[in-house]
Amino acid sequence: MEERRYRSASGGPIALRALQHSASCRELAVRCPRLQLRSLSAVTSAVWLAAYGLFVLSQNSMVLSAAIFITLIGLIIYLHFVKIDQESLLVIGSLGIQVTSSYASGKESTTFIEMGRVKDVVINEAIHMQKVIYYLCILLQDPGDPQGVSEIVPLFQSSKPRLDCLIEVYRSCQEILEQRKMAPQSN
């Protein structure tokens, strides 16, 4: 197991963990920093101070109850649907590619793409605001046109690793895809 430190497109720290289970099976996981207690405390304090200010002005205790309720519901929604701690890519040359997102609440979202549908894995670029952002994506083969692409599946959308990290993941994926392309020719 090898873990390297990188930066995200926004400059935050991320870590890439690479596991090679066999010659044709690799797992690549990008870990984002966990939720910081300091930022959580700051947001909660700001909401509760604003609610206390409204309570002092209105003398209505429902304002405080609503602030507590909104803060708790907001935190649950954030942890369960927004904050992703880890995004992983499991590439199995003979089977397919599994993409998994692990949320802060423990929930996992998994997508599997059969290897027969995979045309290629590429690094693409996009212009966002005044920056060029690179992202890794899987090109899915068009069933009607073997040379065409039917869909593009972007990877690591939450962690948004920089180009140096994406190149390492790209090379690892390409090694397995090349093995798959060479296997039918050797038979």
UniProtKB/TrEMBL annotation:
Transferase is among the record's keywords: yes
GO cellular component: glycosylphosphatidylinositol-N-acetylglucosaminyltransferase (GPI-GnT) complex
Transmembrane regions listed in the UniProt entry: 40-57, 63-82
Molecular function, one GO term: transferase activity
Record's keyword terms, sorted: Membrane, Transferase, Transmembrane, Transmembrane helix
Pathway participation: Glycolipid biosynthesis; glycosylphosphatidylinositol-anchor biosynthesis
InterPro entries reported in the protein's UniProt record: PIG-H, PIGH-H_dom
GO biological process, any: GPI anchor biosynthetic process
Domain Phosphatidylinositol N-acetylglucosaminyltransferase subunit H conserved: 88-157
Family stated for the protein in its record: Belongs to the PIGH family.
PANTHER family, sorted: PHOSPHATIDYLINOSITOL N-ACETYLGLUCOSAMINYLTRANSFERASE SUBUNIT H
Protein name: PIGH acetylglucosaminyltransferase
Annotated source species: Eolophus roseicapilla
Lineage: Eukaryota, Metazoa, Chordata, Craniata, Vertebrata
